[in-house]
Amino acid sequence: MRAVIRRAYPDEAPSLVATYDWLFAPPGSRPATWDPDRAATTLSEVIASREAEVLVAEVDGEVAGLCTVYLDIRSVRFGDRAWVEDLSVHPDHRSRGAGKALLDAAKDWARAHGATHLELDSGTSRTDAHRFYEREAPSTRSLSFGWEL
């Protein structure tokens, strides 16, 4: 069955925190500072924000994926950019269209909010995810660096 994409409901943030386990499973890892209670509070704030969207993929009425997209940077070079921070699909639903539907919905949201670019980072070990992103024909590729503070 096809994934249905919808906005997250304000009261479901605590239950959606469980979708992050799909990101943490190998080759991912749980951040040292991960706190599910803090995550639920933050996710509630993101759901309520006008500068972000939490998108949910449902298959047969069950949550099959999650995507968070944010208006991120007002770039001097490019204009407003949007950022996919989290894109997670349940392992049983991967390669069945849920990820594509979430990414397409994030692109639509970004466009509707005036963004000229949609970007995301992906860890170097996530080769399956990289194959998916390549199939989605990104217009640019880059190498990202980050520092924990």
What does this entry look like structurally?
This protein is of the alpha+beta class and 149 residues long. It has a single domain, classed as Gcn5-related N-acetyltransferase (GNAT) (Aminopeptidase, 3-Layer(aba) Sandwich). The protein has five helices and five strands, in the order βαααβββαβα. The protein has a five-stranded mixed beta sheet, with helices on both faces. β3 and β4 form a beta hairpin. The longest helix has 15 residues. The protein is globular and about 40 Å long. The termini are far apart. 26% of the residues are buried. The model has no long low-confidence stretch (mean pLDDT 95).
Quick rundown:
This protein is an alpha+beta fold and 149 residues long.
Features:
31% helix, alpha+beta, Aminopeptidase, 5 strands, five-stranded mixed β-sheet, 28% strand, 149 residues
Major sheet attributes: 5 strands, mixed
Helix-strand makeup class: alpha+beta
The CATH architecture can be named as 3-Layer(aba) Sandwich
Q: Quickly name the level 1 CATH class.
A: Alpha Beta
Helix percent band: 25-40%
Number of domains: 1
- What is the third-level CATH name, the topology? Aminopeptidase
User: In order across it, which strands form the biggest sheet?
Assistant: 1-2-3-4-5
One letter per element, helices H and strands E, the order comes to: EHHHEEEHEH
Q: Whole-Å distance between the termini?
A: 43 Å
